[in-house]
Amino acid sequence: MSDLLPRTAFGQALPSPKASDACIRRLALRRSAPAQDLAPPGPSAEQLEAILTLGARTPDHGKLFPWRLVVLSPERKADLVQKLEPLAADQADPTRALAVLAKFRNPPCTVLVISSPTPGHKVPVWEQQLSAGAVCMNLLHAADAFGFSANWITDWYAYDPRTTRLFGVREGEQVAGFIHVGTAANPSLERPRPAVADLASEAS
């Protein structure tokens, strides 16, 4: 485990949660940065290890770990972009499909989260897929905690069977998201947020 994180052991009693102004502020102001605008520096090897460790500390019914994490280096991404560019021509909007590859190419660090559920288990596949989504959200929070900007996106190359094979996605698996991490040149602007009163209600 990274020296940047507290060390814990199986069965160890963990401290009770305490109010944290820094954590509340982080959650209240969390905002994805445009992936195409993310630039170096990205996390160091030790920081990335810590971010992955925090990302994996997510709700997981049945302790199945129904997801995989694949770190894509800039060199590997450049190679993948070369293979993705010709396939953009087959998309519904080829011009846009080609343009959005900048979101994949530019960030200095990308983590591919792959949902890999176990069918037939007592834990429903849907719950296992939700766990993969929780990993994506944890990775965003972890990157933010280390002072980086991040974005969780998919786009067309997460769903085309020809492209998912390029990423090593196996049969029965799905791309849960690409988590792009780096440094944003400009602060992110606030976006519209839902009114909680419109979404939450008391059970009748």
Automatic annotation (TrEMBL):
InterPro entries: NAD(P)H_nitroreductase, Nitroreductase, Nitroreductase-like, YdjA-like
Name of the protein described by the UniProt record: Putative NAD(P)H nitroreductase
Coiled-coil positions: none
UniProt EC number: 1.-.-.-
Transmembrane intervals: none
Domain of life of the native organism: Bacteria
Domain Nitroreductase residues, every copy: 41-182
Similarity field: Belongs to the nitroreductase family.
Keyword Membrane among record annotations: no
Signal peptide: none
Keywords associated with the record: Flavoprotein, FMN, NAD, NADP, Oxidoreductase
Cofactor: FMN
